[in-house]
Amino acid sequence: MVSVHLSTSQTLMRYISEWDPREAAHTKGGYLEGSISLPPFQGILRLEIQTWPAADVDPEVAEVHPILLHVVRIGKGKRDQDLEPVPNSSHWRQIFEVSSETRNVSVINSMSDLDIRPDGTVRNVPAQDVITVMDSDNCIALGKKRGQLNLVLLQPKQRTRSQEGEATITAVLQDRLQSTTEKEVLLLEKFFKGKKARNLKKVRIRVEVFSASGNISAVSSQTIVDSGNKDIGAMDFVDAGPLASCEKGDRMVVMASEYILSRDVTPIFQIFSRDANNELVNHPELEELLQQPENALVNNTTILFTTPAQPRLQELPPSIEIKLTVKRLIDNYICNKKFDFQYRVCEFGNCIYCDFGIDKPELPY
After folding, report:
1. Helix (H, G, I), strand (E, B) or coil at 165
2. Would you put residue 34 in left (φ > 0), alpha (ψ -120 to 50) or beta?
3. Torsion angle in degrees (nearest 10) through CA of 278, 279, 285, 288
4. CA distances from 347 to 126, 344, 352 (A)
5. pLDDT tens, 104-134?
6. What confidence tens digit (pLDDT) does each residue in 261-297 have?
7. Phi, psi of 14 (to 5 degrees)
8. Cβ-based neighbour number of residue 287 at 10 Å
9. 3-state secondary structure at position 70
10. Of 179, 199, 233, 290, which sees the most CB atoms within 10 A?
């Protein structure tokens, strides 16, 4: 049995130019992490790894995806980019040979007309090269370390922004479909552009093995999403404040995001308690006692909102914790980053927010 397990669920999908092996050695991160398990076999086994669409795409593109896979070569303290072909439109799939005798995993490099040096000579990329070793359990480790299979996802360009010979969404789909009919390709390309561009930013990994006993395949249960995409990617907030208000509300709070935000996000309060192991337990049934922020202003990487009044604050159990976080309405995704927030009872005549003007700037005299 063959299987692929990924511990990667978010990664920043780079453009081909950011990993171009013809440029000075550099690394950008974003390696896939996990493992591929192969069945018992004797001799040489052919292994193919390819990008595969998420489970929720339209049936017309249920078996095709234009994101590329690039095999990075991590050497001794630096990247051996001279061993890497320039990413091209056939790299939606990477092909390997695995030996049961030596346990070596060798990549079969697929070169193109792009593998030319600035002086016009052909780059000396090996046709086949050992990249890692299968362990005793027939597992291949995916990761960022030297000696592992170092795979990154690369985004092809749109046709209108590409130069001659560069991998585009159109060219990748043509290669996958083995089709020269532009009409057939354009029908599928529309599922990765415009309002459906989020399909491009969600991908699974499919592995297939070819041996004397037959072909078997598996698709990762994990879907990887582009952390840089504001509509489906990660939400991570680096700071928020102030994180306290009296029960009358009307205090301005600012939240700063690591990534550009979708306009379809809103700040929310959640209620938690601690169990016997001091682990947080969410209590959505109590959240109806809280008024949620409204009319938040979202600007690129910031959210501004005014704290709402909490007339039912004293109905909450004393042991609960209020957390401030963000929800994306388009897919109901709730950010993992949560800030401790404190609502205080407003003491008439002695409230630091209402009576002492804690948020007002001091006069210069």
Report:
1. coil
2. left
3. 80
4. 76, 9, 9
5. 999 999 999 999 998 889 999 999 999 999 9
6. 988 999 999 999 999 999 999 999 999 999 999 999 9
7. -90, 165
8. 15
9. strand
10. 233
Beta bridge partners of 270: 323
CATH topology of domain 3-226: Immunoglobulin-like (2.60.40)
pTM here is 0.76
Number of H helices, E strands in the chain: 2, 24
Q: Where are the domains of the chain?
A: 3-226, 237-344
Task: Name the residue with tokens 């057939």.
Answer: 184
Q: How far is it, in rounded angstroms, from Cα 343 to Cα 309?
A: 9
Contact criterion met (CB below 8 Å) for 301 and 256: yes
Are the C-beta atoms of residues 47 and 215 closer than 8 Å to each other? Answer: no
Is the pLDDT at 346 greater than 70? The verdict is yes
Q: Which two tokens stand for residue 84?
A: 């890497």
**CA R_g for the chain:** 26
Structure tokens at 317: 């159990």
C-alpha to C-alpha distance for 362 and 365, rounded to whole angstroms: 8
Q: Which distant-in-sequence residues (6+ apart) come within 8 Å of 129 by Cβ?
A: 83, 106, 107, 109
Give the fold, CATH level 3, of 237-344: Immunoglobulin-like (2.60.40)
- pLDDT level of residue 161 (50, 70, 90 thresholds): low
**Tell me: the pLDDT tens digits for 214-224?**
899 999 999 99
Please, which residues have CB within 8 angstroms of residue 214's CB and are 6 or more apart in sequence? none
What gap in Å lies between CA 305 and CA 165, rounded to an integer? Answer: 48
Residue 45, judged by CB atoms within 10 A of its CB (0-12, 13-18, 19+), counts as buried
| Burial 101-116, CB ≥16 within 10 A → b, else e | eeebbbbebbbeebbe
Tokens of 273: 């308690």
